[in-house]
Amino acid sequence: MSSIEELAAEWLRLDKDMETYNEIQQLLANHNRAELEKRLRTRIAFGTAGLRAPMQAGFSSMNSLTVIQGSTSEKTCKILLKPFIKLRTLHGSLARSVAYHSSDVAVLLTQAPVQSKVVKKMRILTLTQASQGLAEYLTHTISNATKRGVIIGWDARHQSAKFASLVAAVFYAKGFKILWLSDVVHTPLVPFAVTLTKAAAGVMITASHNPAKDNGYKVYWSNGSQIIPPHDAGIAASILENLEPIRSAWTLESVDRASSSWYNCRDSITKSYYDEIEQLIQPLKALSPTMPLRFVYTPMHGVGEAFMRHALHSIAYSEDQMQAKPDPTFPTVKFPNPEEKGALDLAIATAEANHINLILANDPDADRFAFAEKVKGQWYQLTGNEIGILFASIILDAYPKDADIGRLAMFASTVSSRMLAVMAEKEGFHFQETLTGFKWLGNVAQDVQAQGYDAVYAFEEAIGYMFSRVVWDKDGIAAATVFLTACRHWMSMGLTPWSQLQQLYKKYGCFHSANTYLLSPSPTTTTAIFTHIRALSAPHPHPTHLGTRRIIRWRDLTTGFDSATPGHAPTLPTDPTTQMITIELDGAGQVRATMRASGTEPKIKFYVEGRADSERVAKEAAEEVLEALLGEESWFG
C-alpha cells in the first residue's frame, strides 16, 4: 500500500489547478496526515449517478483532476457517532425530522471539514479524470461517437461553469463534437438534448439538492436515460485506464469555438423543449376551459425560475422572491430540498400574505417537483406518492377514448406506492415496477415502448416524475406544467388537488405511506444487520412474523429469493452487493414494507405502505408496521 506521502506526491504531480495543488501542499506542510488520508487514500466512486461529493482537493472529492480523470472506489461520506439516530418522516403533513433512540448511531457529515472557501472545492483534477475515461469508453462502445458528439450542461452551483468548460476541453481534445448549452440549465434539458440531437452522451454538472459545498457529474447515455449496468462499470474501468491528464484538458484556450466541432445549441434546444412541453399538455387543456389560477412558486435558489416562466408563459403566478434567483449558497434553507422540514416556509409566508392556497416547488436543478395546498386552514405538503397518483389520474382522464387502453403503460419504482398497480388492474392499462431510481424507470420504460406499448409516465416517491413525451428522466418543469394544467381541470369540477386525491381513494382504496431512514455507521454494519435479520428464523429461509403480523411474502433482492414466484426467483434484477428486502404482511390493512441500503448515502431506508378501505385503518396499519421494524425489540431496534 502506498504511503500517504507517495499519494500526495502523485497528486502534486498530476494537479495543474494551483488552488487545489496548494491545498494538498499546505496539508503536507502542516503534517496533517489524518486529513491527507481522507482526501487521498480512496477515490471518488463513479456509479450510475456519475460522481457527487464535496468540492475540495483530493482523489476522494470533486475537483478538476477527478472530473478530467475519474475513478472508482468506496463512498466518500463519513459519519460521526452520536447517542441518537436522526430519522426523516414524509407521511402526515409537512415533512419533518424526529429523533429515535438507539445505543449506537450516526449523524451524516461531509467527507471533510467545511473550510472558508467552500466555493472552490470540487476542483479540476476530478473532472479531468472522469471525462477522459468517459470519452474513451464512448469511443469504443458507440458507433460514430465523436461525430455524434456530447451534450454539456451545468447548473448555478459554485464552480459548475468552470467544471463544464473542463469537460468540454477534454472531449474536444479527444475529437468529439461539442454540443454546448452556453448557460445554466435545469438537468432535464441535457437528456432531452441527447435524444433530440442523437448525441452519443450527455454530461450535466450538478449536485441536485445536495448542500452548497457539493457538486457532481451526471452522465446520460445515448438513449437519453441515465446509465445503468454494464455501462457504469465499463466507464469506471475506463477511467482507471486513463488517469494521466492530457495537457490540453486544463483549459478551454486550446478549443476553437469557431470550428465545426463546437456548436452552441442552447437556443434551438430550449425552443424544441418548450414546444414539447406545449404538446404534452394539449390533451389536458382540451379537458376543460381555461380558468384563472393563483399559486406561489419557489425554485429553491436554483435554476428553475427562468424555465418555469417560459413553460408557463400564459399563466400568471406569484414567486417567493427570496428564493427566485439562483444563489449557490442557498441562504434561506438548511438543505435545498423541497421535501426537507422548513424548506417551504418562505413560500408559505408568501402564499399567506397574498391569500393563495397552492404552492409549487422545484429543487435547485429543477428535476424534482413538490406541491403543498392549504386544506381546512392548514398547509399540507403532498407526498411524492400522492402527487404521483394525481398525475396518473389526469393521464387516464386525457387518454384518447378511442385508443386501446391496454397499450397505455405506466411505471413506478418498487419503493413507491402500490396504488398505481391497483389503478392499472381496475382500468386495464399496463403497469410495471422497477428497481429504485430513474436510471431504471427510464430504461425499462424505453424497453417497454419498444415492445409496442405507449410508455407515457413513471414516478418515484422521492418527488420524481417522468413524462416520456418530453424526456426519459424525471423533469420538474414538465411536472409543474402538467400539474397546473390538471389543477384547472379539477377546479372546473369544483375540486382541488387534495379533494381530487380523496375521490381517487374512494374509487381505488386508501393508501398511506410511512417512510423514514436510519443512519448507519458503515456499509459493514448495514450488511451485518440485514444478515442477522435473514437468520432470525433459521432453518426457515426467512422470518415468518413481524410483531403480531404474519409475513405472507418475502422478497430478497440481495440473495435472489421471492416466496411468491414459481421457483422463488424474483422478477426484478438482483444484486448481492446491495441490501434490499420487501415483505408483505397480513392483518387489518394490507401492508407492504421495503428496507434497503441507500446506494449514495450511509442510510438504511424504510418504505412502509398500508392499504385499506378507510384512511384511518391504512394509516394505523402502516405506522404499526413501521414501529414494529424500529422498536427496541425489533429487527432494527
TrEMBL record:
Residues 592-625 form the Alpha-D-phosphohexomutase C-terminal domain. Its cofactor is Mg(2+). Residues 118-242, 272-374, 384-508 form the Alpha-D-phosphohexomutase alpha/beta/alpha domain. It comes from the Eukaryota. Coiled coil: none annotated. Keywords: Isomerase, Magnesium, Metal-binding, Phosphoprotein. Transmembrane segments: none annotated. InterPro entries: A-D-PHexomutase_a/b/a-I (IPR005844), A-D-PHexomutase_a/b/a-I/II/III (IPR016055), A-D-PHexomutase_a/b/a-II (IPR005845), A-D-PHexomutase_a/b/a-III (IPR005846), A-D-PHexomutase_C (IPR005843), A-D-PHexomutase_C_sf (IPR036900), A-D-PHexomutase_CS (IPR016066). Belongs to the phosphohexose mutase family. This is Phosphoglucomutase. It comes from Cryomyces antarcticus.
